[in-house]
Design a protein that fits this description.
It is a single chain. Helices cover about 20% and strands about 30% of the residues. It contains six helices and 19 strands. It is globular. The chain is an alpha+beta fold.
């Protein structure tokens, strides 16, 4: 199989001519000369010894360079899908928003605390302000955001409240009425630079996006993954993070995993640790923690999650712009 620098597959064959030149032959029969670069060459014993000495020297040098840590702020939030960001009447509301009322009533009837969700708190123009407030760290825009159930218009609305310049990558697959409720990784361009030319965002029917970010000040890299697993709990986060394992980088994966605390032991068994605490992040049909951030190669983190006030409406309400609240972290790698 032959691929170009954009990872697009070419329908072609590869042939040598009588002089040893290498060509690809495309489907229309045209030929183009290409360069063959051997991955392995024979080395003498002396060359191999010199190579090992250099390798040890580089390893020792890198160990000294990597004694520092890189610290950055990160927030993850399922933003609750909205098909119309300019909604003003009930007919503008979608199923994902209106079902919050029914689910909150059911939760209260089953004995959970709080009052039912009010329709006035479901319109996106009402929701975006508390949503942004909770994504920010004490009023400061985070260095990295992991967003789920977010349409391009919702993202633009959120970014209009943020201060620094941002870039983003989104999942191939979305949810919602228009299939445009995507996962996003959003990063400050004055702090991070996207390192990978490819964006990894496809695995069967999973909603996720993974990017490789370079920390400009230190030169260190980190793999960041935003995830929205199926609501029935059948998703497998570890199949997703395997797709970036070849980067051999500290890895952070976060988002709406749609699994509860009883599954947390699986993180450690698969080489990751939960860095998002155990405080509930969802108060609508249930009181549960569905949102997680897990890490590998992470030295420390601090976590901040809004508690639920039992005297208020269940989420969303005047303080929470979604049925999920944001998780705010300061992470050291």
């Amino acid at each position: 199989a032959v691929y170009d620098e954009k990872r697009d597959h070419w329908n072609s064959s590869v042939e040598f001519d009588t002089n040893g030149n290498l060509y690809y032959i495309s489907s229309n029969g045209s030929a183009k000369k290409i360069t063959f670069v051997p991955l392995f060459t024979k080395t003498t014993a002396k060359q191999q010894h010199q190579k090992q000495k250099h390798k040890k020297s580089v390893k020792h040098s890198n160990a000294k360079l990597n004694e520092h840590t890189v610290t950055f702020s990160l927030s993850t939030c399922n933003c609750l899908y909205s098909s119309k960001v300019n909604a003003t009447t009930t007919k503008d509301l979608g199923e994902y928003e209106t079902e919050c009322i029914r689910r909150s009533l059911s939760a209260i009837h089953s004995g959970l605390k709080g009052t039912p969700v009010s329709i006035k708190h479901l319109y996106w123009p009402k929701r975006v302000n508390p949503l942004v407030h909770n994504i920010k760290h004490n009023g400061v825009s985070p260095d990295i955001m992991l967003l789920q159930e977010t349409t391009p218009r919702m993202l633009n609305s959120i970014l209009s409240y943020m201060d620094p310049p941002y870039r983003y990558a989104r999942s191939m697959l979305g949810m919602g009425d228009g299939g445009d409720g995507y996962c996003y990784v959003v990063w400050r361009t004055d702090i991070f630079e996207q390192k990978n030319t490819e964006v990894i965002a496809m695995l069967r029917h999973e909603r996720f996006v993974a990017v490789r970010l370079l920390h400009r000040a230190s030169g260190d890299e980190v793999a960041i993954v935003s995830v929205h697993l199926p609501s029935n709990g059948t998703g497998n986060i570890f199949n997703i993070v395997k797709l970036v394992s070849h980067w051999n980088l500290p890895t952070i994966a976060g988002g709406d995993f749609n699994i509860g605390k009883e599954y947390a032991s699986r993180f450690e068994k698969n080489g990751f640790k939960n860095i998002s605490g155990y405080q509930n992040t969802y108060y609508n049909s249930e009181d549960e923690k569905y949102d997680w951030v897990i890490g590998k190669g992470i030295s420390s983190s601090t976590v901040d999650v809004n508690p639920f006030n039992e005297s208020n409406e269940r989420w969303p309400n005047q303080f929470e712009g979604s049925d999920h609240t944001a998780i705010r972290l300061n992470i050291s790698v």
